[in-house]
Amino acid sequence: MHFEVNGVELCAESFGDVSDPAILLISGSSGSMDWWRTEFCRRLAAGGRRVVRYDHRDTGQSAHSKPGAPDYSGDDLVVDAIGLLDALGIESAHIAGVSMGGGIGQVLALEHPERVASLTLMSTSPGGADLPPVTERLVAHLSNPAPAPDWSKRDEVIDYIVEDHRPYSASLQFDEDEVRAVAAIVVDRTIDIEASMTNHSLLDGGGDPLRPRLGQITAPTLVIHGTEDPLFPLAHGQALAREIPSQLLAIEGMGHEVPPRPVWDEVIPAILQLTRCVIGR
Question: Which CATH number covers residue 159?
Answer without folding.
Answer: 3.40.50.1820
